[in-house]
Amino acid sequence: MVCQLAEARSGRTFLVRLAGAATIAFAMLGSVASAHAVVDDISPADGSVVLDAPQQVVVEFSEPVLEEFVEIEIISSGADEVGQPTSAIDPSDGSRLIITLPPLVENTYQVRISARDAEDLHEVVARTTFSVGGEAPQPSPPVLSKPIPLEAASRWLFLLGLAAVLGGFVFRSRWPDIPMARVHLAEPLTAVGLGAIFVGRLGVIASRGLDLGVGAGDAVSALMSTSDVRRLPMVVLAILCIVPTAVRRVPIWLDLPLRDGHSLTVRQALGWTGAGWLVLMAAWSDHSALGGSVEVTTALAKALHLWGVALWIGVLGVAIILNAGRGTLRSALNAVSSTAVAAAVLAAASGLLLMGRLVVSLTGLLTSPYGMLLIGKLAVLSVAIVLGVRLRTGGEGGRRAHGEWVALTMIALMGAAMATAGPAVESSFLAADDVASSVVSNVRADDLLVQIQPIPGTAGLNQVQVRVHDTRRPAPAPFGAIRLVDADGVAFEAQVVDGNAFFDDVELQPGSNSLGVVVERSDWPDASAEIALETVVPVYRHPVRISSAASGSVTRIAGAVLLIVAIRLWLVARRRRTTEPPTQQRSESTWSPGELARR
After folding, report:
1. Is the dihedral angle over the CA atoms 275, 276, 280, 283 positive or is it negative?
2. Could you tell me which residue, 327 or 217, shows the higher pLDDT?
3. Are 169 and 245 in contact (CB under 8 A)?
4. Is 60 helix (H, G, I), strand (E, B) or coil?
5. pLDDT, position 1
6. Which of 169, 174, 297, 418 is most buried (CB neighbours < 10 A)?
7. Reduced to 3 DSSP states, what percent helix, strand and coil does the chain have, rounded to the nearest 5?
8. Cβ distance 401 to 587 under 8 Å?
9. Band of the pLDDT at 3, cuts 50, 70, 90?
């Protein structure tokens, strides 16, 4: 009988490992492709001036967008009303949106675009402000997305469910070392956590559909093609890996060691694998796709942060639920203290790493909804840390434990809200580059040196200054006139005064421009040359609050140091658990009937 059980365990363990590796690989491959759309290019460029009223605005997204959820609005700085534009997706390119504009007169206009990507229905917002004639307008400010209440609540429910599952894992894997006065609640608590995970994931999907503002049929049709829905079978499969830890009346071979001589059972290994899988799937979406493609380091840092916060909430919450009002609460808190501390340090370390990637400056921290939520989260985190320290160094800590748990649930809620708000990663939160307002280009024309400087040097209408130097003479030569020819063949002519000529209303395109220069001379043949000019894209800048210097390096270094500390604490705690005898054995009166039967 024992031999048959060992053989069965060996074969089933191999199958579990193989199935786990295959499903995790499949889930990762299915998730890597997911990415939120971002705006790659928009024309006319933001802050530009055009001579002729454009007939179209063309927006290039990094991912395909859904035509039925595109919303366009155009406003004018003048008092005249403007007809609303129409839009269509380029049939040959699903990521190219073509907006047909109504007739425009000389004025300044702003076109506002809202679209939904085909990957997971995230809203993508674009703005462009341009002027038909006149002066260059102020570029559009960045779009600061606010949290979505229903999606934030669903993510919060998912996190609390994950916390219940992880906390249950810790207590079950270490019994009878950890007191559990209400041990009969352990299995129902894990089951409730699994339900919260699934309902929370469905809530995120439902919130996306409701946010579309369309009928139920259209919303369901749009959702069915998204990555969130395609990941649901993977979520169910991960939950099924955890189910045996909540329902223990299943084949006994799951309670055998995964490897001979080790305490980790097949049941526990399946549970930890399923929980880790859920964390990775949750982290791989959200704002891990900042530039149109998934950033692995950001996704992994988010996974570590989610794991640390959920484990911290879980071990504390489960200790309170299983021992509330009993004398065993203090002993239970002491038993999981090392796990809670390691989880807290892991959460803080990964949070700093994310902060360095998702908030580019202190200005972004103080001017964006994401940054303000982060400030609130840090404040509540400080309260939780103070309560945790006093709990572990003081005497009776029932009230402090409850206070710490409440603070952690608030942190989880603010983190869920941050996951639905756009991070402060726009360059507009950084200080303006310390460069000239325009680019100066030099070219040789026969024996002359010609310098050209467009002002302001952005796409649209510019004043172009041309300065001519005679390399054979110390002073500018008496030139007659200078002709300037743009890429469309339009010629401009100006007289030279002290070697300088000024040309008004020269239109430059975004990027590289080629101009022809002809210098007329009375005593020498005319000199001509081609010169290339690069226009500078104007960027809206937030007023500097404290500092707009990039802050990523400092926070990443601090996060890396804390991460090393967290790993060290985990290793020390693990070594102590394996070398020190149990501090407190549970009485058989606290065991459930099922546990007594298995004993």
Report:
1. positive
2. 217
3. yes
4. strand
5. 41
6. 418
7. 50, 20, 30
8. no
9. very low
Rounded to 5 degrees, φ, ψ at 112 are -110, 130
| pTM of the full structure | 0.79
Angstrom distance (rounded) from CA 136 to CA 150:
41
Residues 6+ apart with CB under 8 A from 371: 359, 364, 365, 424
Q: Does a structural domain hold residue 84?
A: yes
Domains contained in the chain, number: 3
Mean pLDDT for the stretch of residues 392-415: 82
In a domain, 447, yes or no: yes
Q: Which letter does DSSP use for residue 487 in this model? A: T
pLDDT for residue 154: 94
Amino acid 296: pLDDT: 81
Q: Please, what is the average pLDDT of the chain?
A: 80
Q: Amino acid letter at 92?
A: S
- Closest among 182, 435, 424, 416 to 309, alpha carbons compared: 416
Kindly state whether residue 3 falls inside one of the protein's structural domains. Answer: no
Question: Looking at the structure, do residues 158 and 92 belong to the same domain, yes or no?
Answer: no
Q: Which two tokens stand for residue 139?
A: 């570029």
Does residue 35 fall inside a structural domain? no
Burial status of residue 7 (CB atoms within 10 A of its CB: 0-12, 13-18, 19 or more): exposed
CA–CA gap between residue 514 and residue 516 (Å, rounded): 7
69 in the same domain as 192 = no
**DSSP one-letter string for 169-196:** HHHHHTTTTS--TTGGGHHHHHHHHHHH
